[in-house]
Design brief:
Elements (H helix, E strand, L loop, with lengths): L1 E5 L6 H12 L3 E3 H11 L2 H12 L5 H12 L8 E4 L5 H13 L6 E6 L5 H6 L1 E3 L6 E3 L26 H15 L1 H8 L3 E5 L4 H15 L1
Parallel strand pairs: 1-3, 1-4, 2-3, 4-7
Antiparallel strand pairs: 5-6
Helix pairs in contact: 1-9, 2-3, 4-5
The chain binds BIS(adenosine)-5'-pentaphosphate.
BIS(adenosine)-5'-pentaphosphate binds next to helix 1, helix 2, helix 3, helix 6 and strand 6.
């Protein structure tokens, strides 16, 4: 089962991908997480990606396509995987179709996380993540038990550099210009289903699982 999570920054793709991955044992393939890891390790890829991410722009297609090509060829992807934040442009979607057809695989469904931009800025400015285990919190809606500290591993929580309001606005613009055209791309392929991402994380998960059942 190969599922794509499509939606604007802050719509809850990562939150749901983590839950679904734990439930179904499908790896979560997040290009954002892969790029942030490369940045924290100071690799040449990370150095290249950093300027794009901190400006709220997309990293060049060839870089992320290369990352995904390498990742999906690993054995843990055999039974299925969740693509969280990839593809984000039409050339990335075409490259993915090509890559999967080479492996006689195909996308089962594309979940569109639908929510108005006005709700996203607060979600993102309030997000805090654990640099150690990746757990996610929100300063108002998903508070850690002790302020600023990860419930799971006790590490000090951090705010992503691209979660500053001016960068968020740029990311929303980039989504609308470069990523939103994928909605039509996948609707034409008959793969798209829509989730109401304004609902609680639990309700979104229930709807997601129901939709996935109907794909089988
Ligand atoms: P990436 O890391 O993929 O970020 P994104 O797509 O902008 O999405 P986010 O991680 O910000 O949000 P999300 O939808 O996962 O929401 P989350 O669950 O965290 O990409 C970052 C950058 O990397 C890009 O800008 C680009 O530069 C580069 N990049 C990555 N992939 C690329 C690609 N394919 N091509 C080129 N460049 C690429 O939730 C957000 C907050 O909301 C949290 O605090 C959470 O607790 C809260 N929340 C979640 N769900 C709910 C809910 N239902 N109700 C209330 N609050 C909720």
């Amino acid at each position: 089962m190969i599922t794509v999570f499509l939606g604007p920054p802050g719509s809850g793709k990562g939150t749901q991908a983590k839950k679904l991955s734990a439930q179904k044992q499908w790896p979560q393939l997040s290009t954002g997480d892969m790029l942030r890891l490369a940045i924290s390790e100071g690799t040449p890829l990370g150095q290249k990606a950093n300027s794009y991410i901190s400006a709220g722009a997309l990293v060049p297609d060839d870089v992320v396509i290369g990352l995904i090509r390498e990742r999906v060829s690993r054995p843990d992807c055999e039974a299925g995987f969740i693509l969280d934040g990839f593809p984000r442009t039409i050339p990335q979607a075409q490259a993915l179709d090509q890559l999967l057809s080479e492996q006689s695989k195909k996308i089962a469904g594309v979940a569109l996380f639908e929510i108005a931009d006005s709700e996203l800025v607060n979600r993102l400015t309030g997000r805090r993540t654990c640099p150690s285990c990746g757990s996610m919190f929100h300063i108002d809606t998903l508070k850690p038990k002790k302020a600023g500290v990860c419930d799971q591993c006790g590490t000090t929580l951090a705010q992503r550099d691209d979660d500053k309001e001016e960068v968020i606005r740029k990311r929303l613009q980039v989504y609308s210009n470069q990523t939103f055209p994928l909605v039509e791309y996948y609707r034409t392929q008959g793969k798209l289903f829509v989730l109401d991402a304004r609902k609680s994380p639990e309700q979104v998960m229930t709807n997601l699982v129901d939709q996935l059942k109907s794909l089988k």
